[in-house]
Amino acid sequence: MTTDDAATAHGHAGHGYLPEKDKFIRRLKLIEGQARGLQRMVDEEAYCIDILTQVSAMTKALESVGLGLLHEHMNHCVVEAARESDAAAEAKVDEAMKAITRLVKS
Q1: CA 2 – CA 18 distance, rounded (Å)
Q2: Which GO BP annotation is one of this protein's (predicted)?
Q3: End-to-end CA distance of the chain
Q4: Check: CATH 1.20.58.1000 for 16-104?
Q5: pTM of the full structure
Q6: Do the Cβ atoms of 88 and 11 come closer than 8 Å?
């Protein structure tokens, strides 16, 4: 399935995060670097509390990306669905609530 096919399947022509795509990519690359740093810390047998501190920082960074994507989804996909119909809006809100639930569950 292409990106356009996926967008159509979800009821919109484009993703809300696209104007901020470069920002999200930069943040994800930083997180990727954090993950490599964590691997190196474990490989070098760093102090466990120092590793846990870095795990916490990486978790917060991922949560920030998730919240940013959620914000873009609400402002783009949900708003567009609300313009279509009440049923479309309800479906997008339900979809967003499921995503929020996944984000906050530990």
Answers
A1: 16
A2: negative regulation of DNA-templated transcription
A3: 31
A4: yes
A5: 0.74
A6: yes
Q: Which two tokens stand for residue 60?
A: 């917060």
Task: Quickly list DSSP for 16-29.
Answer: TTGGGHHHHHHHHH
Please give the structure tokens belonging to residue 47. Answer: 């102090």
Residues with Cβ within 8 Å of residue 75, at least 6 apart in sequence = 16
- Per the document, the length of the chain is 106
What does each of the 106 residues of the chain score in pLDDT, given as a tens digit? Answer: 444 444 444 544 577 677 788 999 999 999 999 999 999 999 999 999 999 999 999 999 999 999 999 998 899 989 999 999 999 999 999 999 998 998 888 5
**Which amino acid is it at 7?**
A
Q: What is the per-residue pLDDT for 60?
A: 95
Domain residue ranges in the chain: 16-104
